[in-house]
Design the sequence.
């Protein structure tokens, strides 16, 4: 009994030390799953649970390996990460195999290989201490956004035109946070400067969100997205201009920035799901 308790405490300690605490990544993880499943207008419980488990432990394993690559050889956490990652790998292989063998979701193989390629690129950035660069963050978002077409596929049984454009639209939405957050975090003292200085620094964020709004209007008008899809972009669009136009007395806390991004991501997901559920387009 004592050995069991010690073993349980050991694994609990390992999980606590290696569990990723990236709130932004978890936000993309869950919103991609939520959006892909609900916008498919279908739901299959067992395939959903299997893919969720596979995706969840794949994400944990990816983050653990990324940490492993940055640790020194003598760090005791390297052994812990190796042990827990091996368990994650077994769970991933079992759940993923069920999806292929029982439900024959063979397209998941292609998505998984694409996700693996993106993960290897992310590892390259981690090894070279460039994980906070714009390309690294964009690749990270792309990898997590692949959860959306994955869950859309297992729910609907196919990735149609709606699924493809929904994936592109959601990926572009999440990518905008890279430029906005970099403006707020990397240029903390700039927020109290005069407007011309703030505009010069924040112009990339403003340009991106303006182009994204125009993109959503065009694709909504052409029928590539549900007619009301552009509404989901408006809160984030106004946010990007608000934080450049308004002068702040002191730098914003990371907690406030994170909460704002989370709330706006949830609002986006609610609006886009509503637009798809109310959609009555006839796809060609």
Sequence:
């Amino acid at each position: 009994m004592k050995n069991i308790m010690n073993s349980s405490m050991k694994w609990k300690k390992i999980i606590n030390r290696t569990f990723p605490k990236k709130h932004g990544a978890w936000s993309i993880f869950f919103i991609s799953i939520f959006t892909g499943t609900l916008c498919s207008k279908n739901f299959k419980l067992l395939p959903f649970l299997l893919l969720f488990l596979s995706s969840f432990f794949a994400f944990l394993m990816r983050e653990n390996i990324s940490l492993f690559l940055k640790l020194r050889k003598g760090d005791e956490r390297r052994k812990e990460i190796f042990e827990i990652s091996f368990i994650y790998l077994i769970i991933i292989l079992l759940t993923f195999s069920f999806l292929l063998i029982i439900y024959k979701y063979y397209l998941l193989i292609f998505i998984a290989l694409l996700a693996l390629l993106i993960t290897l690129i992310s590892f390259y950035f981690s090894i070279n201490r460039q994980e906070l660069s714009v390309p690294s963050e964009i690749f990270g978002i792309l990898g997590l956004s692949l959860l959306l077409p994955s869950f859309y596929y297992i729910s609907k049984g196919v990735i149609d035109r709606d699924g493809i454009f929904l994936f592109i639209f959601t990926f572009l939405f999440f990518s905008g946070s890279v430029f906005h957050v970099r403006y707020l975090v990397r240029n903390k003292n700039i927020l109290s400067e005069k407007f011309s200085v703030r505009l010069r620094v924040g112009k990339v964020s403003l340009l991106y969100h303006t182009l994204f709004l125009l993109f959503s209007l065009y694709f909504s008008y052409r029928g590539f997205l549900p007619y009301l899809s552009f509404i989901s972009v408006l809160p984030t669009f106004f946010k990007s201009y608000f934080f450049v136009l308004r002068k702040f007395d002191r730098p914003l806390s990371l907690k406030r920035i994170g909460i704002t991004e989370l709330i706006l991501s949830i609002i986006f997901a609610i609006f886009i799901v509503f637009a798809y559920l109310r959609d009555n387009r006839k796809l060609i």
In short: The mean pLDDT is 88. DSSP finds eleven helices and no strands in the chain. The radius of gyration is 21 Å.
